[in-house]
Write a structure and sequence with these properties.
Beta-carbonic Anhydrase, Chain A; 245 residues; globular; alpha/beta; 2 domains
Length: 245
């Protein structure tokens, strides 16, 4: 055992003992068959962990993570995870969750090239180059990155929903919803980009990703949604006078 990692093993013991004290049946439940309702496709960023963000125990969410939460439809890793989650675990929700200030998206906007992860990010880079004039018109660099983070999630939602795995599930009548969310590392809040997709028809009715670049929506957190409801707003995305959240 590498001695400079002893503190991690020690912390593991403390964690396991604390879990057992707080909930004597915790590890027994974890040892049983997992039955998560959610598949989380997120970024590998160390600040964004699904169970913490959602306040769920490990057995409650199935997780796949990669740089900038990109869905490559030729990637056997993500396709295997998606198939296992949908066909075997019978999850009811597939959540593509990006986050603001994403380092992968910053890399795309910096026009950097040459590393392996630039190849991974190529679909996002191609979309950025196609609409570079629009993105570059956003003067604030942080807002420019965050806008690209939003568009990236919307693009990946479309890619997930276009896989035969999802199409077949919908075709056989399986209850399955695909969501696009953003996590704010600056405030800890999740934001729903909408809409939720629950059928092939809903997917096919979506505006193109190019249209979404030119006509952005307004991500809505639970804090903002509750504020909009308090203001009596029916259209969440249109509630400009409600408090931000």
């Amino acid at each position: 055992m590498t001695r400079d990692l002893d503190h991690l093993f020690d912390q593991n013991v403390v964690w396991a003992q604390q879990k057992t004290r707080d909930d004597p049946d915790y590890f027994r439940r974890m040892a049983e068959q997992q039955t998560p309702r959610y598949l989380w496709i997120g970024c590998s960023d160390s600040r964004v962990t699904a169970n913490d963000v959602l306040r769920l125990d490990p057995g409650e969410v199935f997780v796949h993570r990669n740089i900038a939460n990109v869905v490559h439809t030729s990637d056997l890793n993500i396709l295997s995870v998606l198939e296992f989650a949908v066909d075997h675990l019978q999850v009811r929700h597939v959540i593509v969750c990006g986050h603001y200030a994403c380092g992968g998206i910053q890399r795309v906007l910096a026009n950097a090239r040459g590393a392996m992860f630039d190849h991974w990010l190529q679909p996002v880079a191609m979309l950025y180059r196609k609409h570079r004039a629009m993105f570059d018109s956003i003067a604030d660099e942080a807002k420019r990155v965050d806008r690209m983070c939003e568009i990236n999630v919307e693009m990946q939602v479309r890619r997930v929903a276009a896989t035969p795995i999802i199409e077949n599930a919908w075709a056989r009548g399986q209850t399955l919803h695909v969501h696009g969310w953003l996590y704010g590392v600056h405030d800890g809040l999740l934001r729903d980009l909408g809409p939720t997709l629950s059928s092939i028809a809903e997917r096919d009715a979506l505006p193109s990703i190019d249209e979404r670049v030119l006509a952005p929506g307004e991500p809505v957190s639970a804090v903002r949604r509750h504020a909009l409801e308090a203001f009596g707003c029916c259209d969440e995305a249109g509630g400009k006078d409600a408090p931000e959240g």
